[in-house]
Amino acid sequence: MTIQTHFPYISSKMFAENVAISDIAKQVGTPFYCYSNTAISQNFKGYQQAFSEQDTLICYAVKANSNQAVLSTLAKLGSGADVVSEGEIRRALAAGIPADKIVYSGVAKVESEIEYALNQGIFQFNVESEPELELISQIATRLNTTAAIAFRINPDVCANTHAKISTGKAENKFGVPISKARLAYKQAASLPNIKVQGVDVHIGSQLTQLAPFEEAYKRIAQLVTDLTEDGHEISVIDIGGGLGITYSDEVIPSKKEYAAVAKAQLGHLACKIIVEPGRSLLGNAGIIVSSVVLIKTGEERQFLMLDAGMNDLIRPSMYDAHHEILAVDTTNTAQKIYDVVGPVCETGDTFSKSRQVNESKSGDLIAIMSCGAYGAVMASTYNTRMLAPEVMVKDNEFAIVRARPTYEEVINADSVPSWV
Ligand SMILES: *Cc1c(COP(=O)(O)O)cnc(C)c1O
Hints:
The protein is α/β, with parallel strands linked by helices. The chain is built from twelve helices and 21 strands.
């Protein structure tokens, strides 16, 4: 069984849409990421339908998965982009997402990035502090242009998610405290070449409940009312991203229920809504496929050793994240308990302890599920392991959308000074 509907078992063998995983593995080698184009499209259309009654721009959070094939898929469906660096602006533009659908978040934008964004004419800067606003104003003045801005407001609500991905509490580094917001907007209105147009909030990732969104949006609605009273013209409310996905047995509110919360709290303000989903578009549209290198019998445990490691998928070591781990071929139904580990020289390179998996042997394929978001983008070459290639599947076709680098490319990227 799999929680990812586009990775079904057909005659006990896992497929990505209509392509056998084993066929891709034969051609590409392991480990590799595999994305379902249909899943990405369906998830995006789910947002479009959910928000169809509100004037909404869906700005995909590029950091979740920034492969150009993913961005192009979403661009063709009309998506905008929520970006956090110049690199992501460049990726979004290259994939055909127009500048006027790009919002730029991030706590420490540097001068060259701000200049680039202004020259491209992006839709909105989500400004995270007063000093950042002053910098944007200076650069916009120098370039003789205007920066449209929203402040990212920290509403001081608890998102009930993992501490490393909670962003909307007063102690987090993100945004302007809601208590100081009216003052910040007053200052913004007085700065040259700044157009105040919106309010932005993003309280965290992998939220499994609607209540924190509801509380945050309620506070934002009050703020928008106050700001309007203060004479600001607020026409945009960016409600952030953060809706969770099912990794194992989490019950996630539907996109419709989520959209209804936004409408109930913010609908009366007649603003354009921006929503910035990342994980909920990509997470369950991708997996990583790995081979069993060997089974090692320790004194107390059996280790299922994979050729994918924490450098390929860091979520288990970094966030204690749970991912389903499934045999690609389940013809042999016998079950075993394994510690599922990677090859990297760190004890933290563990995908799961004491996990029940189909009995496996060297060479068998293993799929780690729900890896479409915050998987490939967080990969590294630690231990000089090559970045895993990425594959996209649509119906009965697949394509490599990022190839595995060669050892030469990786080694030749370094250089040795003559004085060494
Ligand atoms: C990461 C991020 C998102 C997307 O979060 P998901 O949990 O992937 O939906 C949206 N907006 C901002 C500002 C972010 O930093």
